[in-house]
Design a protein that fits this description.
This protein is mainly α. The chain contains ten helices and three strands. It starts with a helix and ends in a 6-residue tail after the last strand.
Length: 347
């Protein structure tokens, strides 16, 4: 449930960016901010705060109160989903500890996830604040960190969930090479997502509307020396996609070419192949059509889905975690968040 909320949090975050709604709420109120302005006077006051921002002065100077309310609710929904995801961790965790169904030691990984939600909220505010002072946009570096932190949250929650789902089933059979190849693939996917964040923050998708050439050249002058600027980030993101695709084809080939591969691994491999084909097609169409909003959102969602499936392959091909049998009947898996009792007899 938490993983699904984080996934939607990322998607709504993309919609926030595409709608230019991210700077509509000029304060960070983790508690009171859960309630939007109530009454005409409250809305007028909130709009007045937004009118002081560079975005209003330089981009939206003709915006009406009604138009402001629309972008406010988009950003408010993004923050609300983040709050709900955090509460979906904290509230059941407190209840289970109160009922003594979870020990303090076993609860620590879950508290770590809860703390990371708080860190993510702080990073989000630091990102927003970077666009409230001297320019009508947020720092592309902070936006990328915000995106990667959300990916880290999603990865941790899924990993812990998969550990618990797999605790009573035998390890999945996989080709020996699949473990290393899946890890290389996951690293490449993370790099590609990071550059996707830079492209989004810099609005670099609009820098060229041709493919495969950019500004009349395969490698525009200065692209390699400006990888964190619009031209270089767009060029790298455009072509590193094919590195990721090659790694997916190689990893899927190893999994599908070995009869020992588990059925779930085979399905994941097929999903990766289909996903990367769709993702590259979406990416090219975005360039050629001027980055339409819904296509861009589909591109972001497909990227997150590829990340999730790549992570699953890493999890499924890992070595089974050793177990520690205590002098009694407690068996604790060394993987995150998997503690259970057993009838094991001490040596």
């Amino acid at each position: 449930m938490v993983a699904v909320l984080v996934f939607f949090m990322v998607l709504v975050g993309g919609f926030v960016r595409l709608s230019r709604a991210g700077l509509s709420i000029t304060e960070w109120d983790p508690v009171t901010g859960v309630v939007p302005p109530i009454g005409h006077d409250a809305w007028v006051n909130s709009f007045a705060q937004y009118q002081k921002t560079p975005e209003f002065r330089l981009v939206n100077s003709t915006m009406t109160l009604g138009e402001y309310q629309r972008i406010f609710y988009i950003e408010w929904a993004h923050r609300l989903i983040a709050r709900l995801a955090g509460l979906a961790v904290v509230v059941p965790l407190i209840w289970m500890m109160w009922k003594r169904r979870l020990s303090l030691r076993a609860s620590l990984p879950y508290w770590g996830v809860a703390a990371l939600f708080g860190v993510q909220g702080l990073i989000g505010w630091l990102m927003v604040s970077s666009g409230l002072q001297n320019r009508p946009s947020v720092s592309h570096y902070r936006l990328t960190i915000h995106l990667l932190t959300a990916g880290t949250l999603l990865a941790l929650v899924l990993w812990m969930a998969w550990n618990r789902l797999d605790r009573d089933r035998p390890p999945r059979s996989a080709p020996p090479r699949a473990a290393l190849m899946s890890r290389i693939l996951l690293a490449a996917v993370v790099v590609q997502i990071a550059f996707g964040g830079l492209v989004a923050g810099l609005k670099a998708g609009l820098i060229s509307d041709t493919w495969p050439l950019m500004n009349g050249a395969f490698l525009p002058r200065g692209a390699l020396s400006q990888l964190t600027e619009a031209l270089g980030a767009h060029w790298f993101h455009r072509w590193f996609a094919f590195v990721v695709a090659s790694l997916i084809v190689a990893t899927a080939g190893v999994i599908l070419g070995d009869r020992r591969s588990d059925v779930s691994l085979r399905r994941a491999a097929i999903g990766l192949l289909a996903g990367v084909a769709l993702q590259i097609s979406l990416g090219i169409s975005l360039v050629l059509t001027g980055v339409p909003r819904w296509s861009a959102l589909a591109h972001q969602g497909t990227g997150v889905a590829i990340f999730v499936v790549s992570l699953f392959v890493v999890h499924a091909t890992r070595e089974p975690a050793p177990q520690v049998v205590a002098a009694g009947s407690a068996t604790v898996d060394l993987d995150l968040g998997d503690t259970r009792t057993s009838a094991a007899t001490p040596a």
